[in-house]
Amino acid sequence: MPLNRAASDAARRDPAWLGRLGLAAAGLALLWPLLVATEFKPWALLEPDSLRVMGRFVGAFFPPALGGDFLLMLARETWRTVAIATAGIALALLLAVPLTLAATRALSVSALAAGRMAPLPYALRQAVRGLLIVLRSMPELVWALVFVRVVGLGPAAGVLAIALTYGGMLGKVYAEILESGDAHVTRTLLRNGAGRLQAFAYGLLPQNAAELTSYTVYRWECAIRSSVVLGFVGAGGLGQQMDSSMKMFAGGEVSAMLLVFVALVALADRLSAALRRALA
Question: ABC transmembrane type-1 domain: from which residue to which, for each copy (predicted)?
Answer without folding.
Answer: 78-272
